[in-house]
Specification:
The protein is mostly helical. The chain contains six helices and no strands. 76% of the residues lie in helices and 0% in strands. Helix 3 packs parallel to helix 5, helix 4 runs antiparallel to helix 5 and helix 5 runs antiparallel to helix 6.
């Protein structure tokens, strides 16, 4: 429940820095919720926060996870570009998934 409150506040006045204090798990839950409710503008904002946090921390796996929903919600040409980006940012990863 607190997670939903944080989401609402982050969209309506919290800075990127404050929103980036959310954990990756929290961001992924919020992205899933925005997607399931067809709130694509909110989802795009969450993706920006998620990817920005991951880039700042040098976490290529989380950058890829952030891009996932862009593949799903964008037009095919844009989705393919995001898929290519996921491949690019993870190609040297030793992550097991």
């Amino acid at each position: 429940m607190a997670c939903i409150v944080v989401l609402s506040l982050s969209y309506f006045g919290f800075s990127q820095e404050q929103a980036s204090q959310l954990s990756y798990d929290d961001l992924q839950k919020l992205e899933e919720e925005a997607y399931s409710e067809n709130k694509f503008e909110n989802l795009r904002r969450l993706i920006q926060i998620h990817a920005g946090k991951a880039r700042k921390e040098g976490n290529s796996i989380e950058v890829a996870r952030a891009f996932y929903y862009r593949i799903v919600i964008e037009e095919p040409e844009v989705g393919i570009a995001y898929a290519d980006s996921i491949i690019s940012v993870t190609k040297n990863s030793e992550h097991k998934n």
